[in-house]
Design goal:
Blueprint: H1 5-15, E1 20-21, E2 24-25, H2 36-48, H3 55-58, E3 59-61, E4 68-70, H4 79-96, H5 102-122
Antiparallel strand pairs: 1-2, 3-4
Length: 134
């Protein structure tokens, strides 16, 4: 199931990360006024995935599961994926000013490639997908 911006905010409340802003502990990241612009910007990436006119850019089919996922957590498999990610970032930036979340997307893709190459070269198993409970 694709999350919405509201789902994202609720996940932040449930997760309860330990965060400090200007030296002060934040009780709720989702409700901290100084973090609101960033939370809203990331929220746009969730809500756009639900809009039919943006679905092609903001979602992708995950090869390993066949599930539709948000573009910003998809591991790129083709040059089209890379192009769609770029266009998705442009779209989100037009509305929110900054897509922020694309940095996580880039990091996930880098970790994916790095662990795969490490396993090939050193016979390790960092690239293995975790077994999730059913």
């Amino acid at each position: 199931m694709l999350m919405s911006a509201a789902d994202y905010r609720e996940s932040l409340r449930a997760y309860k990360p330990r965060v400090f802003v200007k030296g002060n502990a934040v009780a709720s990241v989702a409700d901290e006024p100084l973090l609101a612009p960033g939370i809203a910007s990331v929220g746009v990436t969730y809500d756009f995935a639900h809009r039919p006119e943006h679905a092609a850019l903001m979602t992708a089919c995950q090869e390993t599961t066949g599930k539709t996922v948000n573009r910003m957590v998809h591991i790129n498999e083709t040059s089209t994926d890379l192009l769609y990610k770029l266009e998705a970032v442009r779209l989100v930036c037009k509305v929110s000013g900054c897509a922020q979340r694309y940095l996580t997307h880039d990091a996930l893709n880098g970790i994916f490639q790095g662990t795969k190459r490490t396993d090939i070269e050193h016979s390790t198993d960092y690239h293995q997908l975790p077994q999730l409970p059913s």
